Automatic annotation (TrEMBL):
GO terms for biological process: diaminopimelate biosynthetic process. It comes from the Bacteria. Residues 178-258 form the Peptidase M20 dimerisation domain. Transmembrane segments: none annotated. This is Amidohydrolase. Pfam families: M20_dimer, Peptidase_M20. It is an enzyme of class 3 (hydrolase).
Length: 391
């Protein structure tokens, strides 16, 4: 296959998937395409893992070696697409607004290259096409299905609008934050807006909670340690002359440090408990951890950096802390179990208007980043499969 043919197939695959987006755990068509191409390339294919997950396994022809997990996520988002390109979503209310269409296209290209070169490497490749990355626990489902059994290392990438097209971003240690979601219900006592002294105003108390929560990061977390507490939703009240009996707050917690991430819910609840106690309300607090921080292994991040610099040049590889993001990603659940590296390939193109953030209805990515992703992921995989972890 020529480079031009491969690039054409990459773009064609990505656009086809873009036209047919599927929500988490519903990726039947996408999984079918992945399974068919993996089989055609010679992989032994398992389907239906964690619902719609696919794993292709291939043994190298050059003897023993490590087992390497490679990963692409497949799901789209419940967003009504508002882009202007000529391959928009054909499914109402569903859109590939995170770039997972590109991840599947890149993953299949890398899988096919590794199949063509299997005589040159030892060990085993497990290529995971994972469902439901967008907050639905697809990675955990695949881990529970045993996908990490015997795996020595893991690699994956995200196309990333935070970086210009084709720039590779990789850091040692945390690359993406861990995340959790909290729900708070404040219970007061409703009543007449003109008779406030006979009520417990849940709306006012929830407002105090929102303000007091701003101190969790600013006054309990070291200024040198990244963390976020965001209240993203506040609902209370029904009419101008009614004091609200209840109020609901929903928010997200983020941190790079796993211990800190596990401590934040307790600190948030402590603030809410204190404010409610002071002002006469009660509360319910619920927390759900969504993702562990995505923490790169030092050796594997170094392999990705070296290979990326060889392929795109040192001036197009960024390793500074600003590459990191407080966005989260469930590949962190994989990297909690096995050493690995998750890196970014820039997809931003100002001239062509590809500037909208991930999860925007206007999101689009510069497709010329996709061959870079293929080259770097393949090269890093080959380094690992040829014994790079031992050196
Ligand atoms: Zn996303
Ligand atoms: Zn994503």
């Amino acid at each position: 296959m020529t480079v031009a043919d491969e690039t054409e197939l990459l773009v064609r695959t990505r656009r086809d998937l873009h036209r047919h987006p599927e929500l988490g755990f519903q990726e039947h068509r996408t999984a079918g395409i992945a399974a068919e191409r993996l089989r055609a390339a010679g992989y032994k294919v398992q389907t239906g893992l964690a619902g719609t997950g696919v794993v292709g396994t291939l043994h190298g022809g050059a003897g023993t070696g490590p087992t390497l997990l490679l990963r692409a996520d497949m799901d789209a988002l419940p967003i009504h697409e508002q882009t202007t390109h000529d391959f928009p979503s054909g499914t109402e209310g569903v859109m590939h607004a995170c770039g997972h269409d590109a991840h599947v296209a890149i993953g299949l290209a890398v899988a096919e290259r590794l199949a063509r070169s299997r005589g040159e490497w030892g060990g085993t490749v497990k290529y995971m096409f994972q469902p439901a990355e967008e907050g639905l626990g697809g990675a955990v489902g695949m881990i529970d299905a045993g996908v990490l059994d015997g795996v020595d290392a893991a690699l994956g990438l995200h196309v990333w609008l935070g970086l210009p097209s084709g720039i590779v971003g990789v850091v040692q240690g945390p690359q993406m934050a861990g995340a959790g979601e909290f729900h708070v219900t404040i219970h007061g006592r409703g009543g007449h807006g003109a008779i406030p002294h006979e009520t417990v105003d849940a709306l006012m108390i929830a407002s105090q909670c929102v303000v007091a929560l701003q101190t969790v990061v600013s006054r309990t977390v070291s200024p040198l340690e990244p963390a976020v507490v965001t209240v993203g939703s506040f609902h209370a009240g029904t009419a101008h002359n009614v004091i609200a009996a209840t109020a609901e707050l929903v928010g997200t917690l983020r941190a790079f440090d796993p211990t800190l991430l596990d401590e934040l819910p307790g600190r948030v609840e402590g603030v809410i408990a204190g404010v409610c106690a002071a002002l006469g309300a009660t509360y319910d607090f619920q927390y759900r951890k969504e993702a562990t921080p995505t923490v790169n292994d030092r050796r594997l991040a170094e392999i990705v950096r070296v290979e990326a610099e060889r392929i795109v040049g040192a001036e197009r590889v960024r390793t500074d802390p600003d590459v990191r993001t407080m966005a989260a990603e469930d590949f962190g659940d994989v990297l909690e179990q096995v050493p690995g590296c998750y890196f970014f390939v820039g997809g931003r193109n100002e001239e062509r208007g590809m500037i909208h953030p991930h999860h925007s209805a206007h999101f689009d990515l510069c497709e010329s980043c996709m061959p870079v992703g293929v080259d770097v992921l393949e090269a890093a995989a080959l380094r690992v499969l040829k014994g790079g972890l031992a050196s």
